[in-house]
Structures are given as structure tokens and as C-alpha cells.
Amino acid sequence: MSNIHSEAPVAPVEAFDPPYYVAVFTTVRTEEQSGYSETNARLEDLVKDVPGFLGMDHAQTPGGLGITVGYFRDGDALTAWRDNAEHRAAQKRGQAEWYQSYTLHVAKVERSHGFTRT
């Protein structure tokens, strides 16, 4: 899992052997964020238990655009996460309270590589 809330050095999720899937969730939040941090932390814990979950990257711009990329080994893993009851409930609350707007893009990765300076 990426370093969303940790003290560890910042690093992207590693490159995996394709094919695999990514879910790119891009958001702009509202002023009303009551309960968001707790729910987000809970969902981060839950997704780790999905068989086939590979990791997550997150970035936030100073202007308020948030981007979260989840990596999944296959379509079944992505479907399991989509259909998780707590995740579904959080989606509804997000639409009602936390998000001004969002987009979700799901893609199959055909090529992947990485670099780390040593």
C-alpha cells in the first residue's frame, strides 16, 4: 500500500507484470468533511483484504484535486472491491456529503515498468 498516511519515504507502488487493472478515482471535495478521514482509513484497511489487491497511490494538489489509483491483479479483484458493502455505503455518503465531483476510470494495464535511483 502506498504512503497515504504513513511516515515512510514517499514512493510509488511498484510496477507489476501485466496484465492487471487500475481504478483511477479523481475527486474534488466539498467543505463538509465530517467523518471522511475515519471512513477513508477504514476503506484503506478493507481494500488490503481483497484477494488480488496490489496497492494504492494517492496525490492531492494544493487546489483540491485528489487522485487515488488502486491496482488490482484481475477483474474479479476489482469487482470484489466494487461490491464490498462498506465501500458501497461510503460511496453513497461521498455523493451525499464529501464530493463536489468525481470521476472513476478503470483500465487494463498492458505495459508497466519502473525506476528507482539507488
From TrEMBL:
Q: What protein name applies here?
A: Antibiotic biosynthesis monooxygenase
Query: One Pfam family this chain carries?
Result: ABM
Under the heading Gene3D superfamilies, the entry gives: 3.30.70.100
The protein's GO terms of the molecular function aspect are:
monooxygenase activity
Please list the residue ranges annotated as the ABM domain.
19-93
What are the alphabetically sorted keywords of the record? Monooxygenase, Oxidoreductase
Q: Would the keyword Oxidoreductase be found if you checked this record's keyword annotation?
A: yes
InterPro entries, from UniProt?
A: ABM_dom, Dimeric_a/b-barrel, Jasmonate_Hydroxylase-like
